[in-house]
Amino acid sequence: MKEKLLALKEEAFALIENTSDKKGLQDVKVKYLGKKGPITEVLRGMGKLSKEERPVIGALANEIRQAIELVIEQKQTKLQEELIQAQLESETIDVTLPGKSIKTGNAHPLTSIIEEIEDLFIGLGFSIAEGPEVEQDYYNFEALNLPKDHPARDMQDSFYITNEILMRTHTSPVQVRAMKKHQGEGPVKIICPGKVYRRDTDDATHSHQFMQIEGLYVDKKVRLSDLKGILTVFAKKMFGEDRDIRLRPSFFPFTEPSVEMDISCFKCGGHGCSVCKHTGWIEILGSGMVHPNVLEMAGFDSTVYSGFAFGMGPERIAMLKYGIDDIRHFYTDDVRFLEQFKRA
Asked: How many CB atoms lie within 10 A of CB 240?
């Protein structure tokens, strides 16, 4: 009986070793350890053995049974590990292959220009101020030295909501609000970016809605030379270090004296071409010293304080910088147009 049990053990171990799947292992387990298996039969025949053989054979049968169960479990674990390894190898991703490109958006060219201008002036000590787009007539015109009967109002044909409420025609009202907030004490050093509205016919160079950035600096002993210095830095940073500027006399109701700023043509270097209309200069913005009446209405003593202001159109700067020939491209959201500025 002992030799029979040991032979069954070796036979079972050999079958387990040669089994390559879980089903085969289950068949081996049923064959040797099942109710009709040879080990179970040995245990059932224990009554025919002598008292001396019975405990020895019983202990050996249980030991062999446990050994077969252990080997089956170890084989199951090994087969499971081999299965997982094979699955990992079959599903391996080659991370060195180029991935699928994901389309991402990019900043609108106007947004890029505005942020570039903001960064420049923040570096010069200015802060950003904002105000309402639906504005009172007082802030939009009267506080800027433009009373109701002033003929210069015709230069800014407006969208009126009521007799006293309109869509702002420039961001200058933000300057007025900022000065009033300071209650007659300087310095005030701000730029005012935002949308403005004028009842204009849309064409290649005009739009009823457009962007504007204005700047204001009010303090004691602010001079026109300070304005020229700031604008020179702006021109060189935006259009190149070799740019020259010139200031031409002009008229704005809220500044006195008033000047237009031109830069030397960046395409021809000032020699004359189609971009500068063969003059060598390109008009960029309007500016001037804040009118004493504007200072007084905002609560500043014009005998103590002075200041300068300037205003520019980001669309015009973007059109010059990127060679865009129609302002309407900025607002039609044509993807073919916008995709040109992914690296701008």
From this structure: 12
Question: Is residue 322 within 8 Å of 341, Cβ to Cβ?
Answer: yes
Reading the block at residue 325, the tokens are: 């020939």
Q: In the chain, at which residue ranges do the beta strands (DSSP E only) sit?
A: 127-128, 134-136, 165-167, 188-197, 209-220, 245-252, 255-264, 281-290, 305-312
Asked if residue 244 lies in contact with residue 263, where contact means CB atoms within 8 angstroms, the answer is yes
d(CA 122, CA 189): 10
Which phi and psi angles does 336 have, rounded to 5°?
Answer: -60, -35
- CA 174 – CA 31 distance, rounded (Å): 93
Ramachandran quadrant class, 224 (left: phi over 0; alpha: psi -120 to 50; beta: rest): alpha
Cα 29 from Cα 15, distance rounded (Å) = 10
320, 206 contact by CB (below 8 A) = no
Q: What is the C-alpha separation between 204 and 325, in angstroms, rounded?
A: 7
Q: pLDDT tens string for the chain (344 positions)?
A: 677 777 878 888 888 888 888 888 888 888 877 777 777 777 666 666 677 777 777 787 778 888 888 888 888 888 888 888 888 888 877 778 777 777 777 888 899 999 999 999 999 999 999 999 999 999 999 999 998 888 878 777 789 999 899 999 999 999 999 999 999 998 999 999 999 999 888 888 888 999 999 999 999 999 999 999 999 999 999 888 988 999 999 999 999 999 999 999 887 877 888 878 889 999 999 999 999 999 999 999 999 999 999 999 999 998 888 888 889 888 888 888 888 876 65
**Which pair of structure tokens corresponds to residue 111?**
């947004």
Report the alpha-carbon distance of residue 115 to residue 134 in Å, rounded: 23
The DSSP line for 171-233 is SHHHHHHHHHHHTT-S-EEEEEEEEEE-----SSS--SEEEEEEEEEEEET--HHHHHHHHHH
115: Cβ contacts below 8 Å, ≥ 6 apart: 107
Distance CA 115, CA 126 (A): 14
